[in-house]
């Protein structure tokens, strides 16, 4: 674009265009739907669809001539849509052919048959994606082993006793982290050797094949690797992949000295490396619908092109502010440079489907914006969808692809109209554009997200607005650090240090939004639920348009929404009655696990166990208004008692953590110590007879006995409680045989009530406790926290001695262990106890004092 020097900046206007051209939209949607349906169809169906479409295209001219031969007296018909119909049919045929070929690639060859037999094979594989770690999951009382997942193509395979066969079959490789060499496990102390592998690397592995976990997958089988050492490399990665690997490793090294959140977020934001993102941080981003900032996306590519071409809003004017016009690069040269940048982006961030999709959609969106032809963006998006679906039909079944297209469509259709409406009502232009874009994307994407997460975020729009201002500087500085790391690491570290401020801001926004009690609401995770949410969104939009003309009503609605999201404890207590006034103990509903809170003053509580899920225990503590925790007692180290510890520590002042001396399982004990060290929280061991007090709350540790010395075994220490009269014969308790019998048991006194908390004690330890010097103090307690989630393994003698008025059982709904056991519940009721359980009654709060006992349910 050229103009005389007298034209002032911004005087030019984009060319006027006619109505939006939607002719490419039906073919793109038809190809998308066809690919999704045909991927796992038989060859006969594929041939039928292709031949049927081609025959229909051939018959269209005959139908047109027949129409022209009609008598003139017949009513006129609309103009003949022959070209559009032919284009649609040809796109359907092309999509069916492409999807049929891709589906056949997955099903052919020897690999699917061997997988159905669960055969043990020796395979030569070529990696097609970056290795990635699975997130740890709590299963019962332990954490499932962490595994490395890698997408790969099997190139040669040999079953036991057979001959090697050349093939090409996509598989998902699963490698247990335990297979990595000692000291290299990816637990924060090192990286597994498997995580350092690059795409295009060839390996030889011994493994067992298994069928794909769900039908219609891109993979022909699952390859579970059984090798116990370093991966056996038989082919080095390609040159571009080695270069990309060096760049990514350089960025990781440049960010090593940053605080935890920016160190984890910056590599993901720049090149999609999320290996450092903790489950807690990932959950915070999901709760606020900021997941797109955890990994590289089309927005990052758009920012890079904007740096080259200038801000999209000024790209259609006479003068632009990008680097290209400032350097005097011509339009053609700028186009070539943009293509090179696109190629480099795809190589460095890996050419997997998500990155290809991000590059294509980002390039299309910015190209249309940069030329000032807003009305041409929809056909451009349709073209991108059509080409990508034909290139990779598996995208047609990808939720990520669906979200990308829907979000881009919302920015092209709804966002300009909503922004214009806000400007007409006095909203500043920049704020109106940002608010319109965030609201439009959220309105159309929320139903799809609800299907995936069964949850709707109420803070997504403000969190995305606040994070948007930091994404651009973090991306630009991060890519600058990436580019300079191989040649000047000090410069890269300085750039990374500058980038950590906006990256840390994004992480703080996510954590703050996720911490709000009403930040999200549960929603049906089905397409019916998505339709219901879409209808609700439409109703909100219609009502909102009317409210915009009434500022006072808008302010009142905004205040109500803010109160619903923040949920101030006094207001929540007045509305819901939870927690009840004067509560003394709350058993949180954390599923199959334990988490209790003992009231120790306003906003203060002693936490006993943390449950299996950080989100659940954090929600419980927030509903109680707990911000200060003088002590966290972890009765033992099973995952269903300690895995939720990050949720307890989140945003709270914690004085100390007290644990049992039996540090098994070792990995969970190490997990607790790492968390404590990161927060500089002292860790102590519970001592038999230990007595503590805070406010009206006091407690005494009545189990376990002191740990025996390692030599000489066996050894059972004599046990006497503090204050035992002289001459009393010491008690010799049994040595705990496992983590459950080493649980910390406490006798708690508060407001005249006596509470006995038994952890997960098994019958041997329960019998020993019933015969111990503390047994007399355990008689006739008011509340019993039943041991081990109410399992069938209980000591009747201890239950009779305790004779509780109220028995509380923490267990998960429909758990696979059958907790609580009917016999245990019957025995408690036979002793006169009222039995309540979290799987049916939800969170339970005990209140009262001076002999009075009340229970409230959340």
Keywords:
single chain; 858 residues; alpha/beta; eight-stranded mixed beta sheet; seven-stranded mixed beta sheet; 27 helices; 45% helix; 16% strand; globular; disordered N terminus
Q: TL;DR of this structure?
A:
The protein is an alpha/beta fold and 858 residues long. The chain is built from 27 helices and 28 strands.
SSE inventory with pairings:
Blueprint: H1 25-38, H2 43-68, H3 82-107, H4 110-116, E1 120-127, E2 132-133, E3 138-139, E4 142-143, E5 147-159, E6 165-176, E7 202-210, E8 221-225, E9 232-235, H5 239-254, H6 260-271, H7 279-287, H8 298-309, H9 323-326, H10 331-348, H11 353-370, H12 377-391, H13 399-424, H14 429-453, E10 455-457, H15 460-484, H16 489-515, E11 520-522, H17 527-547, H18 551-566, H19 569-576, E12 583-587, E13 596-599, E14 605-608, H20 614-624, E15 628-629, E16 632-634, H21 639-642, H22 645-649, E17 653-654, E18 657-659, H23 666-679, E19 683-685, E20 691-694, E21 697-703, E22 745-750, E23 753-757, H24 763-770, E24 783-785, H25 796-802, E25 806-809, H26 822-830, E26 834-837, H27 838-841, E27 844-849, E28 852-857
Helix pairs in contact: 1-3, 1-12, 2-3, 3-12, 5-15, 5-16, 6-15, 6-16, 7-16, 8-10, 8-11, 8-15, 11-12, 11-13, 12-13, 13-14, 14-15, 14-17, 15-16
